[in-house]
Design brief:
By secondary structure, the protein is of the alpha+beta class. It is built from eleven helices and 28 strands. It has three domains: about 270 residues, Spore Coat Polysaccharide Biosynthesis Protein SpsA, Chain A (Alpha-Beta Complex), CATH 3.90.550; about 70 residues, no CATH class; about 100 residues, Jelly Rolls, CATH 2.60.120. The protein has a six-stranded antiparallel beta sheet with strand order 18-19-20-27-22-25, with no helix packed on it. The longest helix has 16 residues. Belongs to the mannose-6-phosphate isomerase type 2 family.
Length: about 475
Amino acid sequence: MIATPSSSAASPVVPVILSGGVGTRLWPVSRESFPKQFWPLLSEKTLLQETALRSHKAGLEVEAPLVVCNEEHRFVVAEQLQDVGITERRIVLEPMARNSAPAIAAAAFLVAEKDPEAVLWVMAADAAIKDQAKLEAALEKAVTVARDGHVATFGMKPTRPETGYGYIERGEELAGVPGSYRVSHFHEKPESAVAAELWQRPEYYWNSGMFVVRADVFLQELKAHAPEIYTAVEKAVAGQKRERDFIRLDGEAFAASPEISVDHAIAERTSRAAVVPGDFGWSDVGSWDAVWELQDKDAQGNVATGNAYLEDTKNCYVRSDGIVTTLTGVEDLVVVVTTDAVMISHRDRAQDVKKIVKHLKAEGLPEATRHRRMYRPWGFYEGLIAGERFQVKRIVVHPGEKLSLQKHFHRAEHWVVVEGTALVQRDEEELLLRENESVYLPLGSVHRLENPGRIPLSLIEVQSGPYLGEDDIVRFDDIYSR
């Protein structure tokens, strides 16, 4: 239900952070199991944390952020926001990916329950902005435009003939808000020859994908131009369930929504589209070449992080999260090393990494979508070694957390505590294990692992059996509602 518009002071600005992207062009660091917004690519903070803090500092009666994310990532989002002191937030869980228009629609319906004239400041969780002061100046103008009933977006001043971004063509200036314009036309990502022309023309801007719009205006435009989305998401929000920090949308209703971006659903169709030009150092961090551009470089134009060493090398980006990585006598390369994959590309071809990921998926390789380290609400596990009928994992459980009560049909397990204290339920037994103590869990035994201590619990798990897949789990009880 949408509330009655407020008639007193100006309605607040609500940051809406979309955290559903996969970021395949930043493979092998960014993967479906843990995409780029959760990684510290440009600073000590993750892209999600940088985005949330950016909105937190923006002023203009900005409220706590509303984050829309994949259900699988809900605890990662909550933990990362908590780690930077953002304790007031709402986290909306998409039952499945339906692109940006349904995600924003869910946020608009939820915000409109309290104040339909509240202004949504919609942004991706994985973008970078260099100049906070210039952003705030542009935001103030965009909020004014939005309160007047427009669907405002930020147009970035192009710095090169970029083919990876869409372009916005500005029209006439809006009355009463100098420096803001009606949108004449949205242009899809152009071919290189067209981009070479557009980026030098003053009426064209890069489309940042950030929108500023009143909740009621967005819903009006959605109902007019994409009624199937409006109907499906309205039902999904009406059937919401709340637990902890999370708002669960009704899965069956949300699944009925078409999968479409906000650009195609509304921005390119509405007569209310406006653009506010900005020059605050925006980037979608859409490739390793973009990461190289955004970071400080040495005298030879290199960016090197992690276990990387360079000699007689120029204009390269090197990141090693794993083994020692060296480069000698090369130029203009991207080299990214993780614990289970190596990616090498010319910087000019960095956008094509997504093609490699597509090939890896077609081959059924798990490295295409999953990391060795897999995060769970209770902590994480990571694969160390695997062979025929066995595998070894490291498991880390946060203080006070516990795994589900479960059993397996095809494997037995042996746990060895490395650090901390483990409380283990094995059928009718309850065992307290300390460092260097172990327990055997026979095939079919009902068991649960808990960390009752104040420091992380770390243990080594040895699995053995004819089938070792993660789907061989029967859960009897789970505090995380999985």
